[in-house]
Amino acid sequence: MSKLGRTMRGIAVKALQCGSIPQHVGFIMDGNRRYGRKAQVGNSRGYYLGYETMEEILAVCMELGVKVVTVYAFSIENFKRPPDQVETLMELAKMKLAELCDQSEMVRQYGIGIRVLGDVSLLPKDVQEVVHRAVELTKKNNRAILNMCFPYTSRDELTMAARSLVSGIEAQDLDPSDITTSVLENSLYTRSCPPMDILIRTSGEIRLSDFMLWQSSRACHVEFIDCYWPEFTFWKLLPILLRYQLRAPTIAESRRAFSEEEQQQQTYVEESEEYRTYSDHKMFTDDHNEAFSSSTPPSSSTPTAWQSVLSYFGNKSDSTYSSACSSDTEVETEYRTHQRSSSESTLTLADDLEETEKRAEDPALYHRLLAEKQERVTSFLTHRGDLPTCPLVQLQ
Amino acid sequence: MVSVGTMKTLFQVFFLPHLFPVSPEIVRVLRMDLEDDKAPLAKKPAHLAVVLAVAVENGAQGDEDWEAKVAQLAQWAVASGIRTLSIMRNDAIHPEALESLQEHIDHSIKQFYREEKDVPGVLVRTLTPIEELDQQERVDLVITDSGSEVRKSVQALHGGRRYDLDVVILSPQDGHDRLAGHIKALGEAALRKEIESKDITMGYMEKKLSGELSEPELVIILKDDLDLSSYPPWNIRLTEIYHHPDQAVIPLYTMYLRALHRYAKCDQRFGK
């Protein structure tokens, strides 16, 4: 790149930083083979150029201050490609992953933790080793994350999360009522990442192709751009970022609405069951909100899903809740039996409520139950629901 | 290809100016659409999804406008041979509003097809709450396995009414929250020892989640900024996403036709 080009880019980056910078950007790096054919350099050269583009875009994103970059490197469906092409991609991935974690100046400079998202067990043994090594070597890096989706499909990810949560219920580590939208979100591969802000697909195709379906289908700016991935540069990214900056406030607004809605839903009682009058319900809602805000450390921004998991860690360390829970074991066991027997009812906070009422509306008990619930979910997400190639990290 | 019947309907659509907004743009697109015999539509979606928000700031007027737009989309969808039309709203629809929408659509379809002997039936529905679905499934799923049979059971649920177009009204809660709700229901089933976690495969999830709402082939985003507005994430895997940035200046119909054309052109390689 010429000196002038670099200077211009520096100026543009500075200008962009005056607006809001996306925290998490996803790329579907499509069109490498077609570019190779178009430029008449062959498929494997196309892949190689694609990798170089990825490195360049990653550097730009880091310079901008993006925290997480997620790239779709290889789909589970891509195993259907001719074996020699799959082989080329595997070799390239092996070489580049090793290079990234051992020698890359960029990884050191920006403190990038490498994560490999997807069903790693489908990869050849030697590639698996490299993957584990790359993740292991960079797992302490907590300033930024590079998610390589390899071999990944979103439906596989959702199935994996569902299976892991249900197995948690089978092992009695979780209760069905613990499964909320944010808990599911925190069982996905992207659990230690902020929610996705921008998804970009190159090559002019206008579909997601099983990439980040969950993460990109709400409060996420989606862009389809009509150029092959190796042709993608900072200057093509710039208008996308500007468009994002224009609508960033509405995205933040809808995220806030989602998290509020979820809190409300947890306290929602079905009318048909006629548990109580509206005023009681309202009192309960206030109660619950109070409990929620007292159990999360005061944070200035909205409690998004990932933040709440991280705040669970905070609770765990100060251990006031766990001691409160264990001190009253009798109540705890009674509560548990009640929970188990009530498989009929799906809205279990209603059960909590019933329980609370039975005990003469004892708010202290209710708080304990809530704290216990959080404890249970947190310990599940950190231990049983652990994903080896996506270690949890608290981003700086 | 477009059948003679559909062709006739399309002509009716365009030459009934009191029912349809006529603008030079529509006439232009119509010509392009109908005279281009060398390149007819290669394929048409069976399930079309539309993200159409209610203009909340306009109050009751916003709701009426929304209803009118849905009725219009339903007419076009029936005319172009689409089987399922799912509409993504920005809030949950009130049951009364759902009934009035059904009446509105029935009326407009009757108007639309008043020259013909057979008036196609349109069914307007929302997704069944998961708890009810679960009970219903325990009866149905034992006998039925393939997707088509699950469809039949859905149809039977609505009093066996014959319909040519299935209009599904979705709200943001039907997206991510519903998926979490499904997993919760799975967890409860696991506690009852009805399933085991190792049975949860992609095929199982697909059966569970696509039984009531199939995967749309095309989604039209009627919104200034492109985002998917909590459309059920499981179902938009290979969906073509059509969005035009200058929404304000392009009539709805043009958008509809362009989206169908764009879909007809797309080439899906399924990973290869």
Automatic annotation (TrEMBL), chain A:
Any one Gene Ontology cellular component term annotated for this protein: endoplasmic reticulum membrane
Organism: Podila minutissima
A molecular function (GO) term: ditrans,polycis-polyprenyl diphosphate synthase [(2E,6E)-farnesyl diphosphate specific] activity
The protein's assembly and partners: Forms an active dehydrodolichyl diphosphate synthase complex with NUS1.
General function of this protein: With NUS1, forms the dehydrodolichyl diphosphate synthase (DDS) complex, an essential component of the dolichol monophosphate (Dol-P) biosynthetic machinery. Adds multiple copies of isopentenyl pyrophosphate (IPP) to farnesyl pyrophosphate (FPP) to produce dehydrodolichyl diphosphate (Dedol-PP), a precursor of dolichol which is utilized as a sugar carrier in protein glycosylation in the endoplasmic reticulum (ER).
UniProt xrefs under Gene3D superfamilies: Decaprenyl diphosphate synthase-like
UniProt lineage: Eukaryota, Fungi, Fungi incertae sedis, Mucoromycota, Mortierellomycotina
NCBIfam families found in the cross-reference section: uppS (TIGR00055)
Keywords, comma-separated and alphabetical: Endoplasmic reticulum, Magnesium, Membrane, Transferase
Catalysed transformations (reactions): n isopentenyl diphosphate + (2E,6E)-farnesyl diphosphate = a di-trans,poly-cis-polyprenyl diphosphate + n diphosphate
Subcellular location: Endoplasmic reticulum membrane
Membrane topology: Peripheral membrane protein
Alphabetical list of HAMAP family matching this protein: ISPT
One GO term (biological process): polyprenol biosynthetic process
Protein's UniProt keywords contain Membrane: yes
Leading EC class: transferase
KW 4Fe-4S (keyword) present: no
Cofactor(s) demanded: Mg(2+)
Pathway: Protein modification; protein glycosylation
Region (Disordered): 334-360
Name of the protein in its database record: Alkyl transferase
Enzyme Commission number(s) from the entry: 2.5.1.-
UniProt record similarity statement: Belongs to the UPP synthase family.
InterPro entries, A to Z: UPP_synth-like (IPR001441), UPP_synth-like_CS (IPR018520), UPP_synth-like_sf (IPR036424)
TrEMBL record, chain B:
Gene3D superfamilies: Decaprenyl diphosphate synthase-like (3.40.1180.10)
Cofactor requirement: Mg(2+)
GO terms for MF: ditrans,polycis-polyprenyl diphosphate synthase [(2E,6E)-farnesyl diphosphate specific] activity
EC number: 2.5.1.87
GO CC terms in record: dehydrodolichyl diphosphate synthase complex; endoplasmic reticulum membrane
Keyword Transmembrane helix tagged: yes
Catalytic reaction list: n isopentenyl diphosphate + (2E,6E)-farnesyl diphosphate = a di-trans,poly-cis-polyprenyl diphosphate + n diphosphate
Subcellular location: Endoplasmic reticulum membrane
Taxonomic classification: Eukaryota, Fungi, Fungi incertae sedis, Mucoromycota, Mortierellomycotina
InterPro entries documented for this protein: Nus1/NgBR, UPP_synth-like_sf
Root EC class: transferase
Magnesium recorded as keyword: yes
UniProtKB keywords: Endoplasmic reticulum, Magnesium, Membrane, Transferase, Transmembrane, Transmembrane helix
Main location, first listed in the record: endoplasmic reticulum
Similarity comment text for this entry: Belongs to the UPP synthase family.
Organism for this UniProt entry: Podila minutissima
Record pathway: Protein modification; protein glycosylation
Protein name, per record: ditrans,polycis-polyprenyl diphosphate synthase [(2E,6E)-farnesyldiphosphate specific]
